[in-house]
Amino acid sequence: MAVITFTDLHTEAGLRSLESFLSGKTYISGNQITKDDVKVYAAVLEKPSADLYPSASKWYDCVASKLSTSFPGKAVGVRVSTQAPSAEAALVNGVTNGVSQITLVDADEDDDLDLFADETEEEKKAAEARDQAKASTKKKESGKSSVLMDVKPWDDETDMKKLEEAVRSVQMEGLLWGASKLVPVGYGIKKMTIMMTIVDDLVSVDTLIEERLTVEPINEYVQSCDIVAFNKI
Question: Which of 22, 32, 120, 152 is 20 to 30 A from 13 (CA-CA)?
Answer without folding.
Answer: 32
